[in-house]
């Protein structure tokens, strides 16, 4: 019960990593608000977890409507009188438009940055006064390994996540006096429904060839890293960018080919 008596807000939390974070926080005793666009789907998940003894509620948030980040924070703060944990989980891009520097339009590039970076900036800015008033809190940003490992495509997504990494450090430094911590978790390839449905077996195999722990992560494993930053176990940890990717991109660039050669022997 590491989060007992804590109030948490988790954005984009009806599936994948976000849903795993909600379940993990609930098991650890937190009162969790799922900040989502699809309230009906979130309510189904909340009812299931509450039937198991959880305290899960829903609040409206739409990444395309920036004002809803402020309203979700205010709604939770008014109901609970405090917010102890904010997980900024939203992030994405359109793979049909998010290509390389030659093919991506400026309009699509800026739209992705606006939504991904804005989701962190606006929500964090809104929650900080409430956390400060109640003696502190923890902000955790879900970034991506793509924010530190340049790719041959997804220029918008990678740039936005790199910016979120730096923004995490800035928030950590600028709110430390209010006892507010800010850290980021950088998932690698994670076995969410979206990944399993949209990435071919060949691409998955190629990606994992360059991952020392030769498998995908699970949403639950990412959630456990988030739990560390949310709990008092990390009370003296802030501004950290935690790579949770099985070591992807860490070894020599020819790692995958070297392993393949050894396996053939």
Automatic annotation (TrEMBL):
SUPFAM superfamilies: NAD(P)-binding Rossmann-fold domains. GO terms for molecular function: oxidoreductase activity. It holds the Pfam family adh_short_C2. InterPro entries: NAD(P)-bd_dom_sf, Sc_DH/Rdtase_CS, SDR, SDR_fam. CDD domains: SDR_c. Coiled coil: none annotated. One of its GO terms (biological process) is bile acid metabolic process. Keywords: Oxidoreductase. It comes from the Bacteria. The keyword Lipoprotein does not apply. Belongs to the short-chain dehydrogenases/reductases (SDR) family. This is Oxidoreductase. It comes from Amedibacterium intestinale. The lineage of its organism: Bacteria, Bacillati, Bacillota, Erysipelotrichia, Erysipelotrichales.
């Amino acid at each position: 019960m590491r989060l007992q008596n804590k109030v948490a807000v988790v954005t984009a939390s009806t599936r994948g990593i976000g849903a795993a974070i909600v379940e993990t926080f609930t098991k650890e005793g937190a009162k969790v608000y799922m900040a989502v666009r699809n309230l009906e789907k979130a309510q189904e998940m909340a009812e299931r977890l509450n039937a198991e003894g959880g305290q899960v509620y829903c609040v409206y948030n739409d990444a395309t409507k920036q004002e809803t980040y402020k309203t979700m924070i205010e709604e939770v703060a008014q109901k609970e009188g405090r917010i102890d944990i904010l997980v900024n989980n939203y992030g994405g891009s359109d793979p049909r438009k998010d290509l390389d520097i030659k093919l991506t339009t400026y309009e699509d590039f800026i739209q992705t940055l606006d939504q991904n970076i804005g989701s962190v900036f606006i929500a964090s800015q809104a929650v900080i006064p409430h956390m400060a008033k109640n003696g502190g809190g923890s902000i955790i940003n879900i970034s991506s390994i793509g924010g530190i490992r340049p790719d041959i495509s997804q220029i918008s997504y990678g740039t936005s996540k790199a910016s979120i990494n730096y923004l995490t450090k800035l928030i950590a430094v600028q709110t430390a006096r209010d006892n507010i911590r800010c850290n980021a978790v950088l998932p690698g390839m994670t076995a969410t429904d979206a990944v399993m449905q949209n990435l071919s077996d060949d691409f998955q195999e190629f990606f994992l060839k360059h991952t020392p722990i030769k498998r995908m992560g699970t949403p639950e494993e990412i959630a456990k890293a988030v739990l560390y930053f949310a709990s008092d176990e990390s009370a003296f940890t802030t501004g950290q960018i935690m790579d949770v990717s099985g070591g992807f991109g860490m070894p020599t660039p020819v790692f995958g080919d070297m392993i393949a050669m050894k396996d053939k022997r």
